[in-house]
# Entry
Amino acid sequence: MASGRRHRSALARVVAQFAADVGPAYLDGRYLPLSEACVSPLDRGFLFGDAVYEVIPVYAGMAFRLEAHLRRLGRSLAQTRIPLPCSDSEWCRIVSGLIERAGGGDLTVYLQVTRGVAPRDHAFPDTTPTVFAMAGPMSQPSEKELRDGVAAVTRPDIRWRRCDIKANSLIGNVLLRQEAIENGAVEAILIREGFAVEGAATNLFIVSNGVIVTPPKGVDLLPGITRDVVLELLRRNELDHEERRIPEAELHTAGEVWITSSTKEVLAVTTLDGAPVGDGRPGSVWHTVRSLLREARGRHAASR
Ligand code: PDD
# Structure
């Protein structure tokens, strides 16, 4: 039985790897299998992490909140002064071309724009941006993560000062997420100047004295699309909430802690730095918000 399960999960990994390798990609004007997409080692995305990106969830073949993702991409490009390589309608065509080639269903579409290929020099080159995109299987929270919640650890925020830009230079985030994993957690919640700001790749919500709180937008955190969707649902359903800074001490006494992202949706953190959050189970407010988010996704899928 156990060996059957192990075999199936090994097989699932091979299938996922295969799908990831041969899944559809788009590079500088043409679609091709991901395994055939090649970029020069002189690409500034490779040499400097001089690039911006988006991760867009696709439900039932429809990109969720595509306009908001494209708006954020446009802002990241403007802030990093990478020339805008495509109009919104071109982006929409690229995304729908990938979804079609991937066979629809639930997917993740990844878009990346680098400053282009040029001899290595920190100064901006005179070149055109590289546009890369791919569609692959969606990674969703597991049944166990939804049922039991997940563990997180707090860590000092070692990232740069413009965390509002969705930049590919993610070494700080990568080190922090890995530290969380090596400590048996799924996420690191980052502390800057005594305040909890967000996760290594997620936004943060807490429930404190019955009020849902999330830190305000600013240079300390990524303006997450899922964060915006959750806030929209809280407003629409008249659930008490505030956007304000969260002192580290309040994070540790919160009744509920959640993390949100396009791939993690809304996940309850039930263990923080080894201690239970609330009663150590996903809380009642999380259950409500999780259902509202599911319904919003359902309405989106049904609107096609
Ligand atoms: N990460 N904060 C950070 C630092 C992130 O990297 C992300 C998303 C979020 C949540 O944003 P959104 O709700 O728009 O996904 C917050 C993506 C999923 C990633 O890098 O894979």
